[in-house]
Amino acid sequence: MPVGALVMGALVYLAGHALPPIGSSFTGLVAAAAALTATGLLPVRFPSSKWQVPREWARLGWVAFTASFGAILGAGVLTRIASPGFYVVLAWGLSAPDWGAIWPAFLAFGLARAAPSVAIALGVLRVRNRPHRMFVWSNQMARASFAVQLMLLPVIAATFL
Amino acid sequence: MATYPATFDRIRPRTALTLLAGATGASAAALWLLRPGPPRLGLLVALAVASGVGGAGTS
Q: For A79, which of B1, B16, B58 is closest by C-beta distance?
């Protein structure tokens, strides 16, 4: 997942340099829009893919499947974007002036995208007889991170605008 | 209106609005405290971490 995220960061960075300069206030605008959208105050839907990694790819073998699964999820945009904050990370990738300011954000996203899977995999070993706990943990982590995003988005909007 | 059904439904609208209002106030205070150079990259990395964890359970 971190590799997929870094590749996506590089692609976004290259795309940003192919376009006329956007300016970092674009990141603030996207953060403000994401905050309003996430709370339902702005009735718009940001673009998001509906594609899912096909389970049939497991026939490729577990190494190839796991690698492709991780890279695709790490890229962030190929599957459903569940986090409003990721749009802001993408906007930062487009508008930041240099690569050194971009890769830490995308690497952080990739590592954090992988962290719940690792935590759940380790946790499942402890609750082998209660696999439904895995889904409860996923929801709890997603809910907590959503609250954190709701707090950070206005701060970022105010900082960049 | 829930524009992020899968995620937004997990949190009550009043809670979301309270968090948003609190964060707006906190951001104003942070801007005042952190002038003239707010740590932009740190904020974005924190948001990126929260965004990554927010994808838990989706594939």
A: B58
